[in-house]
Amino acid sequence: AKDVGKNTTRIFTRDLNTRIKRRMSLEESLRNAIKNEELEVYFQPKVDLRTGSMAGAEALVRWNHPDKGLIGPDEFIPLAEETGLIIPLGRWVLRNSCRTAKAWMNHGHQCMQISVNLSPKQFTQKDLPQMVGNTLSDTGLPPYALELELTENMVMQNVDEAINTMHRLSNLGIQLSLDDFGRGYSSLYYLKRFPMNELKIDRSFVDDIPSDPDNASIVNTIISMGRSLNLRVVAEGVETKEQLSFLKKNNCDQMQGYFFQAPIPALDLLRLLQRGKSL
Ligand code: C2E
Ligand code: CA
Ligand code: CA
Ligand code: CA
Questions:
Q1: Which spans of this chain does the record mark as coiled coil (predicted)?
Q2: Which of 38, 49, 95, 122 could join 33 via S-S bond, C-beta 3.0 to 4.6 A?
């Protein structure tokens, strides 16, 4: 038993070493990725459930790694957040997304709103509202065409300060969305005080509706809550026509998910817009 313990320790140490090395090289190459333009923003349509047409798109960053291929954000956003690289990375994503949305507008697609995810560290940067304002004026995107996605846990860390930041952002004329709604612990009391425009129902609740009765009633509760607070409600992770018809029947405002379209490069999304793709 002792030997086994020793071996385990040795294996663990070796494992830890490789992990640390891998992490360090990942951090180094992520740093270069930002410089070398290896990052690319993909866009996933948000669809209006009444008209069936695209109302906007969410910006989702990807990393075109020279050796490893396309890497998803779950594999590098946490590292970027820990190391602070999220600040330049987030700034880059915002600028790129605003520029893209402006280009869609110039092609005659005036109604497309762009949604950009914020990380916790970005949200607490003192100059965030100023940075967002500068990005809007540099790219020429009208403020109403930009939405920022925050998560409940992000705004519940230090509520009073968060509400203050939300007001400063909202005063720019942009919109705010509460992402992954239902996973965190914001109360109705706070929800009422947040200057929000949108609630995004977390994907885990959209799973298996309507056959999962718990999820079905959670989704309906969120929809009516959103309605009474005057918020647009968006369901994400919609993969089937059963989910879609349930959401439509229960007056959800918008949907996003593979059923309509997975995230795609900006030019591919423009092509869908020009084709007039709808539900
Ligand atoms: P999120 O904000 O909740 O984004 C939705 C995720 O669900 C995306 O994963 C999207 O590709 C995926 N998705 C969309 N439709 C479906 C569907 O029908 N079924 C399933 N199973 N999944 C679907 P992705 O692109 O891998 O992004 C993961 C997370 O990474 C995002 O979750 C967001 O938290 C974060 N992220 C992505 N881009 C950025 C960014 O630019 N900045 C920051 N701070 N975070 C980002
Ligand atoms: Ca999001
Ligand atoms: Ca989400
Ligand atoms: Ca389930």
A1: none
A2: 38
Q: Cα(169)–Cα(106) distance, rounded to whole angstroms? A: 25
10 Å CB burial of residue 15 (0-12, 13-18, 19+) is exposed
pTM of the model: 0.93
78 lines ligand 1 (CB under 6 A): no
The gap from C-alpha 257 to its chain's centroid, in whole angstroms, comes to 13
Distance (Å, whole) CA 16 – CA 169: 42
CA neighbor of 263 nearest in space, from 55, 21, 37, 72? 72
What residue spans of the chain are helical by DSSP H?
Answer: 2-35, 77-83, 86-106, 120-123, 128-139, 152-156, 159-170, 188-193, 203-206, 213-228, 241-249, 266-275
The response to whether residue 160 sits with its C-beta less than 6 Å from ligand 1 reads: no
Q: What is the mean pLDDT of the chain?
A: 93
The whole-number pLDDT of residue 221 equals: 94
Rounded to the nearest 10 degrees, the angle between the axes of helix 128-139 and helix 159-170 is 20
Q: Is the pLDDT of residue 162 over 90?
A: yes
Residue 67 has pLDDT above 90, yes or no: no
Is the CB of 85 within 6 Å of ligand 1?
A: no
